[in-house]
Amino acid sequence: MLVLDAAATRAALPWDGLVQALGDMFAKGCVMPVRHHHDVEVPGEAEATLLLMPAWQPGAYIGVKLVSVFPGNQMRGLPAIHGSYLLSSGRTGELLAIVDGGELTARRTAAASALAARYLAREDASRMLMVGTGRLSANVVEAHASVRPIRDVRIWGRNSKKAEATAKELDLKGISVSVATDLEAAAREADIISCATLSSEPLIRGDWLKAGAHLDLIGAFKPTMRESDDRAATRASIFVDTREGALSEGGDIVQPLRAGVITENAIRADLFELARGTHPGRTSPDEITLFKSVGAALEDLAGAVLAFEANRSKA
Question: Is NAD included in the keywords of this UniProt record (predicted)?
Answer without folding.
Answer: yes
